[in-house]
Amino acid sequence: MEWNSALYDNKHDFVAEYGKGLLAFIPDCKEQTILDLGCGTGTLTAQLAPLGSRVMGVDASRNMIDKAKEQFGNIEFRVCDALALPFEAEWDVVFSNAVFHWISDHDALLAGIHKVLKSQGLLVCEFGAKGNIASVEKGFAEACGEYGFDYAPKFNFPTTEHFWELLETNGFIIDKIYDYDRPTVLKDGDQGLVNWMKQFFASELSVMEEDTQAAVLKKAEDLTRDTLWDGKEWVADYRRLRVIAHI
Q1: How confident is the model over 71-90, as a mean pLDDT?
Q2: Enclosing domain of residue 59
Q3: For the chain, which terminal residue's Cβ has fewer other Cβ atoms within 10 angstroms, N or C?
């Protein structure tokens, strides 16, 4: 899936806003090196910049990296695959917000992160936990089915227990790991859910004719309105997994 960086920044800036809470877990050490894994348009990378001697943002999306470089020209950004990071024992901290659920192989991901961390290196991350956006995904899948399209779940939302096991298998010592509900208000009132689906289900919508896209989005709204519409805003059923671990 290729990202629409403008739509992401304009309509889904809550991703970075909620990610600010993770910054409290970054050590107070100006000499440290920090890798922002899946940096998007660089908003949180810019807030990490004063916390280390070297800070780099990496993302698989060229559009996101181009936008990050445009906005924060004084920070180093690079297009990188999270499963093929070109570093070895180079970083004191790997930071990641709202990224891991896009990666199907968490075992390989954690092995790669372990490889790029220095001895005693720290992983600080948060992403979707099991049950995240369950109502949104169910409504979209049913709407797709009504118009002859199959929706194949693409997100990797693990249980806390499963991710704990993977961390230990890959040599991490766990400092904190927990999941929690985080109901998330979507911007733009009645348009909030449609905006969200256009961004995060873009690949599924891209194979449909324009009128079919509109019909699927409307049907998904209808199917989730009783659960997610509070009368003024769409409130997505987010559930997050937060991890602080070191090697």
Answers
A1: 97
A2: 5-132+155-186+237-246
A3: N
